[in-house]
Amino acid sequence: MNIIRTFIAIEIPVSKNLLQRWDEVKTLLKDDRIRWVNDKTLHVTLFFLGDTPANLVDKIKHAVESSVQNTVPFELSLRGMGTFGDPNNPRVIWVGIDSCPPLIQLHNKVNTVVETFGYERDIRGFNPHITLGRVTKLTKQHSLKSYIEKIKQEPLLTHKVNGLTMYQSTLTPSGSIYKPLWKIELPLIADSNN
Question: What is the pTM of this model?
Answer without folding.
Answer: 0.91
